[in-house]
Amino acid sequence: MNLHRKGRAALVLALVAVVGMAFRVSWNALRDIAGAVGADDTAATLYPFVVDGLMALALIATLVLAGDARRFALRVLGAYTVASLVLNYVHGLVPELHGRTVDWGRLADWDPANWALVLLATSLPVGSIYFGSDLVAKVLHHRPVPIPAASANAEESTETERKRSTADLPVSTPAPITPNTPALPRPVAVGFLKSTPPAKPLPPVDPAPAVSIERRAVAAESTRPRRATGRVPAVAKSTRPKRTPEQLLAEARTVTADWPDAKVTAEGIRREVRTSPANARTLRDTLLAERAEGAAA
Q1: What is the 3-class SS of the chain, one letter each residue?
Q2: What is the pLDDT of residues 101-113, one digit of tens each?
Q3: What was the pLDDT predicted at 13?
Q4: Global pTM?
């Protein structure tokens, strides 16, 4: 850190020395130009401070100002630098200026060039008054942007603000609530609600007895595929013993003894004898055949 500061201080001192020597060289030329345009010895001696001094003032203003004001200071610095360069160039081209043997107001042989040079040399002091006052006013009214506090090594690296992630924050766990612990009053948000008296503590509440859940046996689901019609319950099954065809025919004869032939149908026999539709049709055909044989005899 100390070496860095010493290096910067040495650089600034070297710059001041170079600027001082350059000002001494330019001062001789600007003094002779001022004498050629009619300035007396005192005015000619102060003339270089008017031109090159405003250049130094504009340079300092560019380091302080920002935005449009800084660009204005750069324009003033550039304009006066070009003007000083032109006057030094003219001083090198006209040897009579060195011995002050040139006529007053004569800086060039060509009249338009001479008029332009005289106008430039005489307008620089007036411009120094205007532009210098404006630059000083801008510097005095400038409000620098506040810079946040830097860390110890801010000159080598910029400070980076890091937000803490939610994983880094401590996790608060609520206190367990027991049945016999009286309820605490609710906290009141400060600044949002009016202060209210704390609520009265509630009496302890006995926990309700837990009801045990009995395990019931559940029948295992059968893996056998079920038929579309389903099984007939045992209650719905008939308790009548199985009858032979001779027994069914005899019972059908008894039931249909007084029936006319038109009434002897398979549905009627099925209902009375309580048999299957196939057996009922067989019994019907047999009974009608017997009646036909009896009628023929």
Answers
A1: CHHHHHHHHHHHHHHHHHHHHHHHHHHHHHHHHHHHCCCCHHHHHHHHHHHHHHHHHHHHHHHHCCCHHHHHHHHHHHHHHHHHHHHHHHHHHCCHHHHCCCCCCCCCCCHHHHHHHHHHHHHHHHHHHHHHHHHHHHHHCCCCCCCCCCCCCCCCCCCCCCCCCCCCCCCCCCCCCCCCCCCCCCCCCCCCCCCCCCCCCCCCCCCCCCCCCCCCCCCCCCCCCCCCCCCCCCCCCCCCCCCCHHHHHHHHHHHCCCCCHHHCCHHHHHHHHCCCHHHHHHHHHHHHHHHHHHHHC
A2: 565 567 877 889 8
A3: 86
A4: 0.47
